Prior knowledge:
Elements: E1 5-8, E2 11-15, E3 23-27, E4 35-38, E5 41-49, E6 59-64, H1 70-83
Antiparallel strand pairs: 1-2, 2-3, 3-6, 4-5, 5-6
Amino acid sequence: MVKICLDIDGVEYRWCGCYGSIIKSKEYGVKVGDVRIIKDILFYAYMVRRNAFENIFKKEISWSIQNVSHEKITKIKEMFLKMD
């Protein structure tokens, strides 16, 4: 499987392509429900995976979009491939 990653404003986003988690990142200070515009698409933090060493290691953030559909996921993947 090919790993598709993008670095945008110092944050590495990793393509997942699932309905719940379209992309993932690892960073500090993000809570469930936080929103972010990534390349003109509004994403929200769907899930924040905590770890035992939260102050040392970054949390894994699963980003999703409202009204997710196969067409939207395909469009986002094409955007990632063009930028890779």
